[in-house]
Amino acid sequence: MEQVEEESVCGNGSINTENTAYDDEFSKDPTIELLGGLDLNDLRKDGPGTEFEVSYNETGTPEVKQYFDGEELSKNLNYETQLDDEGSSSGDEDLSPFDRLARKMEDITPDKSGGVYKERLKQGTGMTIPLRSFVKVHYNGYLEYSDEPYDSSRLRNEVQQHQLGGGLEGWDLAISTMKKGELSRFLISPEYAYGNIGCGPRIPGDSRILFEIEVLSFREKAGVDEYYSASREEKRQMPMNVVLKVYLAEKQQGTESFNRNRFSDALKWYQKAKDVLDNIRLKDEKEEKTQQKELLKICLNLAVCSLKLSQSGRAINFCKEALDIDERNTKALYCYGKALHQLSEFGRAKHYLQRAQKLAPGNQDINKELERLESSVKQFRMTEKDICRRMFAKPSKTEDVNKKSTKESANSKTKTKEHEEKCGDEFQGLVKVRLQAFKDDSHVMEIPFPCGTLSRPEMVCIFETALDMGLDTRIKGEGTPDISIKIMKKQPTSP
To answer: pTM for the full model?
Structure first.
């Protein structure tokens, strides 16, 4: 059975498993350090229990752990609760700090009963947050006559995630009046907060609470659950505006993951968004135009994520889909060329990048990618030249003599020689230099290594050197003349 301790739901009413600030009073602070550990078996037995010692500081008071950094705490002090006479107007002298604040704020309760007051500090953008939406916020919570927050997501350095309708009544009412990017201050009465009971040692009964809330983002929930609970055919029958709402919700999740450099998660969310669009049953040309416009956007996002994860083949597929919609899309051509660059398909990469450059001559990303491509081509040609020198070297006199003997004798001697031959120091050095250059080039993810008539020990040298450097290898073909080696970097993962 799951249990939630009372102290873990103070703050905004949603579950909070992080440590927060407590009163300094010894009897109310559960974080006093002990000098030694406790034996739980002694506590379970009937009897006098067990004894323990508390760690004291030089002043003879218990050591209390400070969870919030002092410098960060100073940035989140609430000086509004400590107004002096100069900060108050005529007639305010006998009012409490929260009462003085309330006179500057707007009553947002439906019945104008003064349950929740609001003061907007920074304007937001877009639509007002709908009910049942998932929101991500930063907040500070203050009690009256206290300039330090009793709870703060900022001081914990942890964004608060919350679904409207699942927290304090005053908290939900407050956020339902906000927009993305908005920063506002709310004064919430006990009836809309923790009532006459309060919440544990931190919030006494009948306490008014001052929240400073900033909305970072939100995802509309209404319609999303209904969509995913429907059958495939029911989804196809849903109107375009409902489907687009689901699509935008998934796309927003992908963008948030991408901005946190969680590219694998972003790829999954973007793919879900694309699946939603692909499943639409279009009714007319207008709906088809809307779908194609959004498909182009999501395919480009998927291509960028794939490139971040070095999934070049997948990126190419998304670029092809984007170019089927708009063959002159600069970003699609750029991503296509970049993916081909990663695969060491230099000629094709140059073709697509030059097409993108022709459409956007001043684009710095395209121009820099062409410069990096040229550098990769030069590096590859140096490697190819050195390896080809080995491939097309003139046969030695010993090999000429062997050719004049019988076929069976020649094959036997060749095998014996190949078995006894060792990879030379010069060749080993060449391989290390070329593979290190490939490893250092962040824009190329795999290269073919020409083998031709290289001896088996030399191919083994390439294989082992690559593995020692943390590179992956793939061998194709059977028999020395037909073997080719592809060297690849390991796939990166999202943090």
So the answer is: 0.54
